[in-house]
Amino acid sequence: MREEANRSGKMTTIIFIRDKNPRGQEISGYIDYAHRLKTEDFEPYFSGKKRLLPRPSDLSFYNWETQTSTSNPTPNYQVIAENASGLLFKNKRDRKILNVDPKAAPGDNSTRTTLENTKYTQVVIYDHITRRKT
Question: How does pLDDT run across 44-91, given as a tens digit for each residue?
């Protein structure tokens, strides 16, 4: 359901992942799932052949060992990094703000889901209903 809703434009999902890269360095980042679905074949991730990890080209990326930090806008989100509230993402369709601070509400039409799993150190999914079909 989430994949179809992201492909159709009814929903945009941001996936936060914190884990170790192949070099053993701790990395974390926010992935625009709808954008990655359009630009990449997800079958290796869905089948478990490949692990989904944040990249420097994603919405936000941080390497804890090298202290490398990047943030990039995508077709769905603008990154608002210089903010007293911390890191925010602004949806480009409905201009709603998605707040990824775990102590704050995620924002209008948005939900936060923490996934318990053994494959990654931490995974949090932010779903934002855009209400617009493409």
Answer: 999 999 999 999 999 999 999 999 999 999 999 999 987 777 899 999
Q: Integer distance in angstroms from the first to the last C-alpha of the chain? A: 16
Which burial class, exposed, middle or buried, applies to 35 when counting CB atoms under 10 A from its CB (0-12, 13-18, 19+)? buried
What six digits make up the tokens of 76?
């769905």
Q: Name 1's bridge partners.
A: none
Work out the burial of residue 91: count CB atoms within 10 Å of its CB; fewer than 13 is exposed, 13-18 middle, 19 or more buried.
Answer: buried
Using CB atoms within 10 A of its CB, is residue 4 exposed (0-12), middle (13-18) or buried (19+)?
Answer: exposed
